[in-house]
Amino acid sequence: MSTAPRRGRLITTAGVGVILLAATPMLAGCSEVVFAVARGMAQAEKGPTAAPEDDDPASHLQVSVSGLEVGDCFDEPEPDESTPEWSSAVYPVSCDDPHMFELYADTDIPESLLPAGEYPGDEAVWDAADTVCYSAFEDYVGETYEDSFLEFWSYTPTEASWKYDDRRVLCVVFDEDGMLTGSAEGSGAESS
Fold it and tell me: How far is the C-alpha of 88 from the C-alpha of 101, rounded, in Å?
């Protein structure tokens, strides 16, 4: 079992949404567009209203990973040359269906691990996120990380978002050998 978890990054989308909403009236000159954009953004934060009808991920509604809640399961789109490096788009799916990942913790890096101030660097943020996610793993899965077949990784603040006091870490559990089916919550306790 690998001891080096895969790491991602969390991109703050709220600022982008505010800029988009502010710019829309200037670009379109119509208040109806503002309401349509706001409705679309609210729907994207809530996730899909109905499960996709097929297994084609391209038909799923993408949302920002920052809009998910603990216990939500999701797949990541296959990156291609059109995928921005900063993309945090994911496909929410039912945990009853095969899926790649499950969000098991949404928390901030405590000041005891990384004091406020200038961005400490990627490695320091990743190490702090690993500590936070490792601590939350057993409570969620129901067995220690060392005893589990599951792995974890995290979405972490970026240097740019750190300047705006972003200390949020999203911890994600996955099976290195394949897809998960069913929730990972309490799954270790069930197998003991």
Answer: 14
186 in the Ramachandran plot: left (φ > 0), alpha (ψ -120 to 50) or beta?
left
Residue 175's SS3 state is: strand
pLDDT tens string 40-63:
343 344 333 334 445 554 555 677
Q: Which of 87, 83, 82, 97 is nearest to 52 (CA)?
A: 97
Q: Which one-letter DSSP state was computed for residue 2?
A: -
User: What DSSP line would sit under 31-72, residue for residue?
Assistant: HHHHHHHHHHHHHHHH--SS--SSS-GGGSPPEEGGG--TT-
Q: Are 150 and 175 in contact (CB under 8 A)?
A: yes
> Which strands form 168-174's sheet, in the order they lie side by side?
7-9, 151-156, 168-174, 101-108, 73-75, 89-93, 63-64
Tens-digit pLDDT profile for residues 58-96: 555 677 888 889 999 998 877 655 554 555 678 899 999
Instruction: For residue 83, give every residue at least 6 positions away whose Cβ sits within 8 Å of its Cβ, in sequence order, or none.
Output: 77
- Asked if 153 contacts 5 with a C-beta cutoff of 8 angstroms, the reply is yes
Cα dist from 109 to 59, 96, 104, whole Å: 35, 31, 15
For the chain, the residue count is 192
Any bridge partners for residue 156, and if so which?
Answer: 9
Rounded to whole angstroms, how far apart are CA atoms 27 and 142? 51
Tokens of 152: 């974890």
